[in-house]
Amino acid sequence: MDFHIDAASRLPIYRQLAEQIRSAIARGRLQASSRLPSVRDLSRRLVINPNTVARVYTELEREGLLVMRHGLGVFVAPPGTELTKRARRERLLVLLDGFFTEAVLLGFTADEVRELVQERTAQFQWQTEA
Question: pTM for this one?
């Protein structure tokens, strides 16, 4: 998986990298148990401070997206259900409210938003119900 940093972006480097990893997992480009580059290797490739990569990995591990195995490396975590269904639903509702608020302020109609959501939904890897 190739990651890149846009030096001209207003988004901090650690957020650029974290979002790329989150997106790769959500879109199925990084599968559960996939090994990520070491902190040293990725910092060298991206020409960024190793502490930045370590911070991203630690943050994503706290979120349950990555697992650090000492001496073995950093891996994509299996899909977790650490949060209860109710807590996950509440978290998603907060995000949706922000999304819909922004869509309304940008002048989109409900039909336009539904169409865009439907288009984008196809680009992600969804869990199947167990």
Answer: 0.71
DSSP secondary structure string for all residues of 57-124: HHHHHHTTSEEEETTTEEEEPPP---S-HHHHHHHHHHHHHHHHHHHHHTT--HHHHHHHHHHHHTTS
Question: pLDDT tens digit string along 12-29?
Answer: 999 999 999 999 988 889
Q: What's the Cα-to-Cα distance from 90 to each of 85, 97, 130, rounded to whole Å?
A: 9, 11, 21
More confidently predicted of 31 and 82: 31
Comparing C-alpha atoms, which of 93, 102, 37, 90 is closest to residue 66? Answer: 37
The gap from C-alpha 125 to its chain's centroid, in whole angstroms, comes to 12
DSSP 19-38: HHHHHHHHTTSS-TTPEEPP
